[in-house]
What does this fold into?
Amino acid sequence: MSAGAPANSPKSLLVVRLGAMGDVIHTMHAVALLRSALPETKIGWVIEERWAELLCAKGTPRSGVRSAGRPLVDSVHMVNTKAWRKSPLASETRTQFSSALKELREQRYDVAVDFQGAIKSALLARLCGAGAVLGMEQPREAPARLFYSQRVPTKGSHVIEHYCSLAEPAWTRLNRRASLDRTAEDGCPYASPGELRDYLPRDTAAVEAISSRLNHASSPIILINPGAGWAAKEWPAERYGQVSRELAKQGAHVFLNYGPGEEQLAKAVQGASDGAAQPLTCSIGELIALTRRASLFIGGDTGPLHLAAALGVPVVAIFGPTDPARNGPYSEKSVVLRNPASRTSLSHARTPDPGLLQIAPDEVLAAARKLLESNHA
It folds into this structure.
């Protein structure tokens, strides 16, 4: 227990943020704030199984003493709501849900915070048995508000600042003091760029696997992620190929990260690069290890971009319909490219955003060279 905290003050917190990659990483900034301010507080996190490696390396126990393999939280509670929704009446679903709920309730969390703002996440926060359930005053799904005992107004423009807004009243409840010590008048002074470097898991096996697959490639290693969740956010493959080809001419080793269903996209970029860019798919633990070794990341608004920013890797962010003021890389080592023709929209359109198509390869190359030069200055 921290000095000055009353003996009867709550000492355990449950974080509810189920996915996806970028959203989990954004939430980690707020949780890192709480971990730093309350080092002895027991913190658990409910997360979808597919994203658990962002919190806990493979082979590391999901609960117990924190370590390099699980540096941020004391317990990781995995769920599989996607499978549950597909078969809500199946006996296996009932069994898994009951087991997950039993695990949560056994921890007797004092405070639960729903960082997701969805009905399913708010319900899990309520059902865990915590004495207080905090959520945003304006959650993503309005009915989620019904499950909160405290609704918190969000501050700032970036989503990380919104999540830090939730961290402050959580801290107050856990420490029984009026507010966090402030270091700035406006916005969120609690999370600084690059602070997650020590809070993302280190997986020894993943590090070794990546070292082998890179085949001792020397710096600079440039990581390109051409996928972006939906087509409206995807910069054309041939342009990524052109950028890769030009950077390789300058001695860079270019690797393409791609996920499930993006095989053809990766092949298209590789072809357009005349083989200069090498496709590389990997687990989340391996992606963390790979990103740590990168000198530069280039990509759109997607999870791997936010991972790179959180690790302090310089980022060239190519934005279209999503607003970088809200979702851009939370890092001083970044250049965000967005054409004024782009209009903010979360519609999962199947055609590229017109403004995105106005961003030329030369612009991306200029930004990349600027960041590489400043990184080696």
Notes: Residues 1-7, 177-191 have pLDDT under 50 and may be disordered. Residues 204-375 form a domain with the Rossmann fold fold (CATH 3.40.50.2000). Residues 21-37 form the longest helix (17 residues).
